[in-house]
Hints:
Helices cover 52% and strands 6% of the residues.
Amino acid sequence: MHKERKGLIIRGWAPQLIILNHPAVGGFLTLCGWNSTLEAISAGVPMITWPMNGDQSFNEKLVVDILQVGAAVGAKVGGPYFENQQLIEVETIKSVIESVVGEGVEGEAMRKRAKVLKEKAKAAVQEGGSSYSDLKSLINELKARRL
């Protein structure tokens, strides 16, 4: 009888974008760094947000309040040191995770919005998309200035 593998431990750098694009991933607990936020959006994965410092609280507002593809655990950014961080109750964390990956209406709506954003992000980088066109314009402008 073969044993079913339940998880994987990765030591060192992990291929986050590959992991986020795996069909088994239903949500992403993130500190809301800009790179992780963009990767989750481009993968169409809803987020559980837990900002710690810097721009992370602003990114959380984008994810939760504007794009509505995530739910906040309620962390308050208090500075770079652990002792300045607010403790979050386990029931709060459980509730937020269930709201994102559970079968409720809220989670389903979040997942639908995340999938729409994934398609928009994909279209933006394809030929004719806004990011593709903007990068092409930048390259052309830099070439023109070099001459």
